[in-house]
């Protein structure tokens, strides 16, 4: 079943849905008084069109405008629910177009998002490379500082030794002066 066949079918169905009294078509957004209603004999009218007939014939038996079958009381008319296929079809087309368009937008968005992600990854990668380089140079610097620190500690020990020697020499000199 092609959608084209559907359109043709609903278009021809629409053409035949006329009120048997006023000969105008039934509209999807009509007020309740213009609802399509069916009589027990099966003929279809606007509710207000057929109710006018029923109410105007209060003194005799009201008859169907088409086949002259007796009409029921207004509350016994059968309300019809017509599927307005053409407008439904149009709506489906609009939805499909909208979906296709927004899907297209989503594709574009996805491509843009992917490009954006790739850029971010590139930035992160170069940041990572920079960080690795920075880390290596910091490690080098740190080991240099550690070496300097060790050297300074050694120098401090040497100086302490020198100081102890000097103190010893001073004591010896003092003893020699006292002995003299
Ligand atoms: Zn009518
Ligand atoms: Zn009839």
UniProtKB/TrEMBL annotation:
Gene Ontology MF terms in the entry: zinc ion binding
Record's keyword terms, sorted: Coiled coil, Metal-binding, Zinc, Zinc-finger
Alphabetized SUPFAM superfamilies for the sequence: RING/U-box
Span of domain RING-type: 19-67
Residues forming coiled coils: 149-176
UniProt xrefs under InterPro entries: Znf_C3HC4_RING-type, Znf_RING, Znf_RING/FYVE/PHD
Name of the protein in its database record: RING-type domain-containing protein
PROSITE patterns reported for this sequence: ZF_RING_2
Top-level taxon of the source organism: Eukaryota
